[in-house]
Amino acid sequence: MTDNDPYNWPKHKKVINLVLVAFHAMMGTFTAAAVQSVFAEIAADFGVSIQSASYMLSLVIAVLGGAPLIWGPISQRFGRRPIFLLSLLCSLAGNIGCAVSPSYSTMAFCRAITGFFISPAIALGSGVVTETFFKKERASYIGVWTIMVTLGVPVAPLIFGFVSVRVGYLWIYWIMAIVNGVQFILGFFLLSESRYIRNSVPACTPQLSASVNGRSFGSLLSVRRIDPTPLSWWDFVRPLSFVTRPCVIIPAFAYAMVFLWANIVMTVETGSLFPEKFGLNPEQVGLQNISLIVGSLIGELMGGFLSDWWMWRRQSKNEKNSAAVDSEGSEGHHAPQPEFRLWVGYPGLLLAICGVVVYLVQLDRAGDTWNITPIIGAGIAAVGNQIVTTVATTYAVDCYRESAADVGVFVCFVRQMWGFIGPFWFPQMILEAGFRPSAGIATAMLVGASLIPMVVVQWKGRSWR
């Protein structure tokens, strides 16, 4: 163990690194949801339908899911820091392209480019946390990353609704380009490399870490290979191999279903339905997202800190003396099995179901007059979504922590693919079936694809690992 090992970094350095990476991750979903409150304006500007305008959101969601398959192996070889910095520069360029796009297709292309380059942190955050923080505090810090990913969705339309009304929706892209530039400057000087190979450390690794920590300008510009292992095609598809690992695919699929109904449905339907149904302008549509922000923050307190306390409490019961701690800081044989954490996820699943039902049923009862009750349902669903997000992600990482970055990429891929597919079918479902039958469909899907599978993995997970 040396000072180059991220486990030995001072606490403030770890926190600064996490904040920069978590904010970068938030900018991924923030970029996707930035246009949620201006579907009507985009449709009018380019002469397309509101549903076609909503594809500006779902397109980026899809790219955010697939792009980390490319970035993951490259960051394993050359480190997290250069990939994060490159992604910010290219995202800046992509946002400028969106701002000056003359047509719908050009803007869609630039949105896809931006989504591709802003994506690394949205999947690699779990790897950065695992490389930096000990197991006993991991859920809390993974929770910081996951809450930022979640908050990007409601915060973007809340801010940009005001921007659109006052200076026009194209300024959404200019502002995001400015933010990317500020991120790059802060990251260039403050972001440290968390990729570190223990046991057999290549000679270049300490040199890189020392130079970055030394803050000399020349060394900050240097990019060196950390892992000498040659790249192969398998490296780019390896995260998908977790489809054969029940302890990853089941929580990933369960979480993705909750994310679809308790996050994506709320975001897309609020942006496309509320202007038409209630006559709200972009500013008013953006304000509806406050409930999602408040709910997500409450959910993170329960999903992150509560689940860490839950695991600590169980360990305290398991041991009479102090826990044995290995070189990684993980607990010895007295530590509870990862499946014990899943108990905290069940209230989240039930809250997500309750919130989605309230949202859809109250929309049906509202008629053409806006009232706050559907938004209360959205807030309840957001609490449940964030609990499930943190618990499911932490469980999967704990099961295969040596492959934490790949697990994060796979979970991101499953979540984003469901998020991409959803907007192509649930608007038609709500239109054809109605709000109340749609609430029944949502309940059936959440119980069948999330609740029951989570019970099964808690029962059999230990034997599957």
Automatic annotation (TrEMBL):
UniProt keyword Transmembrane helix, yes or no: yes
Superkingdom in the source lineage: Eukaryota
Pfam families according to UniProt: MFS_1
Parts of the chain that traverse the membrane: 15-40, 52-71, 83-104, 116-134, 141-165, 171-191, 248-268, 288-312, 343-363, 375-397, 404-426, 438-457
The Major facilitator superfamily (MFS) profile domain, residue ranges: 17-465
SUPFAM superfamilies in alphabetical order: MFS general substrate transporter
Annotated signal peptide: none
The entry's keywords: Membrane, Transmembrane, Transmembrane helix
Cellular component terms (Gene Ontology): plasma membrane
Cell location: Membrane
Gene Ontology MF: a single term: transmembrane transporter activity
Alphabetized InterPro entries for the sequence: MFS (IPR011701), MFS_dom (IPR020846), MFS_trans_sf (IPR036259)
Main location: membrane
Recorded topology in the membrane: Multi-pass membrane protein
Full protein name: MFS general substrate transporter
